[in-house]
Every structure is written in structure tokens, then in C-alpha cells.
Write a structure and sequence with these properties.
This protein has helices at residues 2-28, 35-41, 60-73, 75-95, 98-109, 222-258, 270-302, 307-343, 349-357, 367-379, and strands at 115-118, 134-138, 141-152, 159-166, 172-178, 184-188, 200-211, 215-216, 260-261, 264-265. The protein is α+β, with helices and mostly antiparallel strands. The structure holds flavin-adenine dinucleotide (FAD).
């Protein structure tokens, strides 16, 4: 319990120190190069990693509370933690060899290695099974070829989990690759509409050699690994969205009590109260959805081999992610409306949430794909409308 409090205090202190820096980065539309140094300073780059690997060993409830707090600072900032910790550290904890844990997981806790997670390609988004990156074995190495697209931390990461298919049997495998080898070309994607303060990139691998020891899990296990990683990732996205709704509520409430129009604070106008009530209901419902998903995820974590618990956790997390992403976007929209003309600006936080949270309805499973997944969970596998 004490450890949980101290973790959440460090996360809160990190957020408070980062905020004025993030304010400037939003106004200048520039990459925030202080997220990682400050996260190092507060020792929060290995929240879920067990202490034997130098991490903070946060239980899942603390971890998710941390994501809610970080989400208040913005979807961009939370995305950095989602990728580094939920998608990669947790995958290495579950599927990595002891050598991979020593070589990658341990240094990542101190921020000596920053991670990215690369599943998406130009021709494989909603359906990752259509990916084209391939690998073939060559003595003690695997040789990888292909392009990954729209990758968070893509050009700043020191190591990336990539997914590729065998040239022999087309089965998907996962590899952890260092990004300083010969045959990698990276490019930052600068034209995105939101999350301006973090890195999103693409990279191409040309005859990129990876040691055989960098295979994560077994050969052909890539799709299982990706699916489990996405359960971790989506839960963090849902929690982060609950955080951004909370921030919108705080900002909109404060502003509406101060701003005077027609001789009274706008908070006294009934239509403004409708927006406040809407944001509040989004917050309480999102928190409830996240709590339900965390509880089910915790049950599965305690019995990792239980397929039924995994199925239930997967669905509860998908529902939470779908709900919270949409609630967060609507909450930000309502908060912008309450701020009126000032809302349509990066000077105020709701506008930043509006542009940033929109991507939560796209990455780690689009709204549409999650709806199909949830419907298949209700109707049964034989009704599955997708892979
Ligand atoms: C800022 C940002 C960061 C990202 N970070 C990462 C990352 O770190 N790692 C990573 O691997 N990926 C990342 N992504 C990629 C993201 O996961 C994909 O964009 C997403 O999965 C959708 O794929 P797509 O863009 O190719 O869209 P498409 O798959 O082309 O889909 C286009 C539209 O068609 C719909 N659609 C597709 N198939 C169906 C169907 N069967 N039924 C109904 N509708 C369907 C989709 O829902 C969507 O509305 C990121 C994306 C963005 C924008």
C-alpha cells in the first residue's frame, strides 16, 4: 500500500513538473524532449516491471491509476508510457527470455532504452495478419525486410518489438530489434493532426540482421503475442481517456464559474450545466468501465493459462477502450464549447484534449474493429465478421 502511494506521488510530481513544459510545447507545436528525462528523474519508466528487474513492481490497480493521472496531462504523454510499458515491457515480462529481460527490460526501467511497438504497416492496419514485413533465418541471425508505419516513439526508440512473417510458412513472429544496426531508415511523420508533442514515425528494414536470441516467444507465436500486448495496451488507453475526461471537467468547471455573460457566471446558464453534467457522466461511467476491466484483467493475470479468463478480460478491456475513447472525445468537445472562442486554442487544455484524444478511437483497435470484436463476443465465434 505504501509503495502504491509512493508510486502515485512520483507520477503526480512528474505530471506537475512536466505541465509548464508541455504548455510551451503545445503552443509551439514541437516535440517535448523533457518527457523522458523527467520520467527518469521520478523513476516512473518501469512502473509494472518487478523489482528483481529494478522496476517499481506496481500492481495493476496502481498502474492503471498512474495512467489515469498521466492521461490528465494529455493523450500524447500517456501514449509514450503505453508503448514503453504496456506494449513492450509487459510483453517482455510475459514472453521474454531471461537474457532479453537482462539486456532490454532492466535498462528500460532506467530509461537507458526507450521502446516502440511496431505492428502496423502501410497495407496492414486493422488487419495485422495482412502484414508484409518478412524474415528468414540465416545461421545465427534472422534477416528482416519490410516497412512499419504510424509507430509511436518510432524514430526515438532504442529498441522496437517488430512483427514479421516467415518467408517459408507465412507464420508471424515477434522480434526485439536494436535501432542502431545497418539497414534501418527512419522518418518522422510530422503532418498528424494531434499529439504534436510526441514522436510518431515510420521505418524501413532492408536485410536487417537480428541475432537469433532476439526472437520473442517461439517462432510462429507472433500473433498470440500481439493480441495479448493489445489487451495490456487498450486498458492503458481506456484509463488515460478517463484521466483526460477528468481534466476537461476540472478546466470546464473552473472556467464556467469565472466567465461572466448576461450578468452572471456562465455556469448558471442551464445549457452550460447540460455540458457539465454530460462530462461528469462520461467520467463516472469511464471510471466504472475501467474498474471492471482492471478487475477482469487482474483475474486473468492471476491465472494466465486460463483461456476463458483471457477471453473475458479481452472483451471487458475492448469495451472499456471503445467507451472511454468516445467519451473522452465528447468530453473534450463539450469542454471546448464551454470555453467558447478561447476553447479553440492550445492556450487552454480542453483544445489539446480535443485534438489528442481523437486518435484513441483509431489506434490499438479502431471503433469499428472493437465493435465487431464485442459483437462476436456476444453472438459467438461463428458470427465473427472479421478474422
Ligand atoms: C498517432 C498514431 C499512433 C500510432 N501508433 C502505433 C504504434 O505505436 N504501433 C502500431 O503498430 N500502430 C500504431 N498506429 C496505427 C494504428 O493502430 C492504425 O492506424 C489502426 O490500427 C488502423 O489501421 P489503418 O490506419 O491502416 O486503418 P484501416 O485499417 O485502413 O481502416 C480504415 C477504416 O476502415 C475501417 N475498417 C477496416 N476494416 C474493417 C472491417 N472489417 N469492418 C468495418 N470497418 C473496417 C476502420 O475501422 C477504419 O475506420 C498508430 C496510429 C496513429 C494515428
Amino acid at each position: 500500500m505504501e509503495e502504491s502511494e509512493s508510486i502515485l506521488k512520483d507520477v503526480n510530481d512528474f505530471c506537475e513538473k512536466l505541465r509548464p513544459i508541455a504548455d510551451i510545447c503545445y503552443l509551439e507545436h514541437k516535440f517535448n524532449d523533457q518527457i523522458i528525462p523527467l520520467a527518469k528523474e521520478f523513476n516512473i519508466l518501469g512502473l509494472p516491471v518487478p523489482r528483481e528487474f529494478d522496476g517499481r513492481g506496481a500492481d495493476i490497480f496502481t498502474y492503471i491509476k498512474a495512467f489515469e493521472r498521466i492521461g490528465m496531462e494529455g493523450t500524447g504523454i500517456r501514449t509514450v508510457f503505453s508503448v514503453h510499458s504496456s506494449l513492450v515491457q509487459k510483453t517482455l515480462m510475459r514472453f521474454g527470455t531471461n537474457e532479453q529481460k537482462e539486456r532490454y527490460l532492466k535498462p528500460s526501467v532506467k530509461g537507458e532504452i526507450i521502446f516502440a511497438f511496431a505492428l502496423t504497416e502501410p497495407d496492414a492496419g486493422s488487419n495485422p495478419l495482412e502484414l508484409k514485413m518478412n524474415f528468414k533465418k540465416d545461421q545465427d541471425s534472422y534477416v528482416l525486410n519490410g516497412t512499419k508505419y504510424l509507430i509511436s516513439n518510432g524514430t526515438i526508440a532504442d529498441a522496437i518489438i517488430v512483427f514479421a512473417k516467415s518467408t517459408i510458412d507465412d507464420k508471424m513472429s515477434a522480434f526485439i530489434i536494436d535501432t542502431d544496426g545497418e539497414g534501418i531508415e527512419k522518418e518522422e511523420l510530422v503532418s498528424k493532426m494531434g499529439t504534436p508533442t510526441i514522436d510518431t514515425g515510420m521505418f524501413e528494414l532492408q536485410d536487417y540482421k537480428v541475432d537469433v536470441n532476439n526472437l520473442v516467444g517461439g517462432e510462429g507465436q507472433g500473433w498470440q503475442i500481439a493480441k495479448q500486448a493489445l489487451i495490456e495496451g487498450r486498458l492503458g488507453v481506456a484509463a488515460g481517456c478517463a484521466g483526460s475526461i477528468k481534466d476537461c471537467l476540472i478546466e470546464a468547471t473552473e472556467y464556467s464559474k469565472e466567465r461572466m455573460q448576461y450578468g452572471k457566471p456562465i455556469a448558471k446558464h442551464q445549457l452550460i450545466q447540460e455540458h457539465i453534467a454530460g462530462i461528469e457522466v462520461h467520467l463516472s461511467s469511464s471510471e466504472a468501465m475501467v474498474n471492471r476491466a482492471v478487475t477482469m484483467k487482474d483475474e486473468w493475470d492471476k491465472n494466465p493459462g486460463d483461456k476463458e479468463l483471457m477471453r473475458r478480460a479481452d472483451l471487458a478491456v475492448a469495451e472499456a477502450k471503445l467507451f472511454c475513447a468516445n467519451a473522452a472525445f465528447d468530453a473534450a468537445d463539450r469542454a471546448v464549447q464551454i470555453l467558447g472562442g478561447r476553447g479553440w486554442s492550445f492556450l487552454y487544455r480542453p483544445g489539446r484534449h480535443l485534438v489528442d484524444t481523437r486518435v484513441c478511437r483509431i489506434y490499438e483497435g479502431t471503433d469499428e474493429i472493437l465493435k465487431l470484436k464485442i459483437a462476436a463476443g456476444v453472438l459467438g465465434k461463428q458470427y465473427r465478421a472479421y478474422f
